[in-house]
Write a structure and sequence with these properties.
303 residues; alpha/beta; 10 helices; 14 strands; globular; ODC_N; NAD(P)-bd_dom_sf; Ornithine cyclodeaminase
Amino acid sequence: MTIISTRDIESLCISPRTCVEWVKLSFMLKERAQLPPKVSVHPVCNDFFTTMPCLLPFDMNRFGVKIVSRILGRKPSLKSDLLLYDSTTGDLLALLSADWITSMRTGAVAALAIKTFRPSNVRKYSFIGLGATAKATLQCLIECSPNEKLNICLFRYKEQAENFVAYFAKYETVSFSIVDTMEELLKGAGVLVSCITDAQNLLVEDSSLFEPGILVVPVHTRGFQNCDLCFDKVFGDDIDHIKGFKYFTLFKDFDEFSNVLLEKCLGRKNDQERILSYNIGLGLHDIYFASRIYDLLIQKCPL
């Protein structure tokens, strides 16, 4: 059994664009994988330990399980580890630090959702919650859109927005603005990305602020329950992860993201549809990433 650290993974210099490709590939093999719903336990309040198993398709010979936890007061509060097995022998291949995997696959899924469901006439991308996940999302979006000019609007919170702008200073295709109200953030926005990890209430109580055609991507799912009731379409990464939502039975139109990528259902029909993309996070992506990383490290230096 090999221990693979975040530093080991970073040494591979895996690009954000590659992460988006891996996410798309893993979505497209979802039907052939065994993917039980994740299971969470809660020690206190909003702290949690979540277990995410996945058996990849038979020809890949890999099983894995990721455990992600959030503990208030720990630094960082979110942390994840992953066990990767050879499914033909049952041998434990590696214990991986999964923080990099979690951040990059989450950002890659969000970027892929944006590319898939955004309106064709989008001129403004709005972001609220500007931590590591938001950075990963925008990195993936930029690298998958090398010839596009991206106008990014940020919601001000402490020094986060200014630090976010500085972090992306090297990208010439991106321009930024910073606002102080949700009204300003949503005005003219074709895409809204929320990476807030803990929202107790609705982030936008007035649903009329969501203009026709907007795509809302609540990366951590919180704060947009009113959209469940009025948006034209809702897509999710896995129905078993979403069917327990309070308003699931009231969605106007629901399907899985993978079915859109496999062309089994239509994604956006027109630029007037308001679309919500709930991607709760699949162990499928984590285990696929871990498997590819393990193989790359073996090629680089036999473990």
